[in-house]
Specification:
By secondary structure, the protein is of the alpha+beta class. Helix content is about 40%, strand content about 15%. The protein has a 4-stranded antiparallel β-sheet with strand order 1-2-3-4. A hairpin with a 2-residue loop joins strand 1 and strand 2. Helix 6 runs antiparallel to helix 8. The termini are far apart. The structure holds zinc ion.
């Protein structure tokens, strides 16, 4: 009888050692105090991140742990704060497992599609997140109002991405994305503005099509329709 051997689980840093190497190099200049550790097959990056303003003054610092998923960079890392400075509470933009809710689900997908890099994660998502937490600690509110969750969060997301408050237009764009995969650039735009598609809604059409997976968009469209039907 043939023996079946279990294939070893291959992790991102084994299948892609160059990526791991490049991630280490990228941190060398400004974040060399952060330490990569390999433990039980997981790569963790741990160290203190400082929130510094334009004048170079430090407003606070956090001991942070970034845990890389097995199929990094195609899955989003989880980020934790290790000293209990941020309460694990959804009102503080924390997930129930204690990790940071760094961005909206579609923004995670978007960052992954663009190609996630740890330096980008630290500088454009984690440090701004920590900075907002410090502001909240001091003033009891968020810098630019609270982020919305649930159905309101979905509506808010499309209003910002599609640059309109009009839910009818948003619903039209989503319907068109879901039913028509290609529109001739010179065809009249689906919004009935009378302009050519390429001079009207093409950019937003391509943008949202790339950002949101089709099955999610179908669900979101139902949510948006509830608001005006
Ligand atoms: Zn249009």
């Amino acid at each position: 009888m043939k023996k079946i051997r279990e294939a070893p689980i291959s992790r991102w840093y084994e299948t892609n050692p160059l990526l791991y190497f490049n991630e280490k190099i990228s941190l060398f200049e400004h974040y060399r105090h952060l330490v990569f550790e390999e433990n039980e097959g997981k790569i963790r990056l741990t160290g203190r991140l400082r929130v510094i303003d334009q004048n170079g003054d430090e407003h606070g610092n956090f001991l942070v742990e970034i845990v890389f998923p097995d199929d990094y960079p195609y899955e989003f890392p989880k980020v934790y704060e290790k000293e209990g400075k941020i309460p694990v509470d959804s009102a503080r933009h924390m997930n129930s497992d204690g990790s940071f809710a760094l961005c909206f689900k579609y923004d995670e997908i978007f960052h992954i599609k663009k190609g996630l890099k740890v330096i980008y994660l630290i500088e454009t998502l984690i440090i701004p997140f920590l900075s907002r937490q410090l502001f909240f600690d001091q003033f009891g509110e968020w810098v630019s109002g609270d982020r919305l969750f649930g159905d309101e969060g979905i509506v808010d997301f499309y209003q910002k991405e599609l640059n309109t408050k009009d839910l009818k237009i948003i619903s039209n764009i989503l319907e068109t994305v879901l039913t028509t995969h290609k529109i001739a650039p010179n065809a009249p735009c689906f919004c009935k503005s009378g302009k050519k598609f390429k001079k009207c809604h093409r950019e937003l059409f391509e943008h949202i099509k790339m950002k949101v997976p089709e099955k999610d968009m179908r669900e979101d469209l139902k949510v948006i329709r509830k608001y005006f039907e």
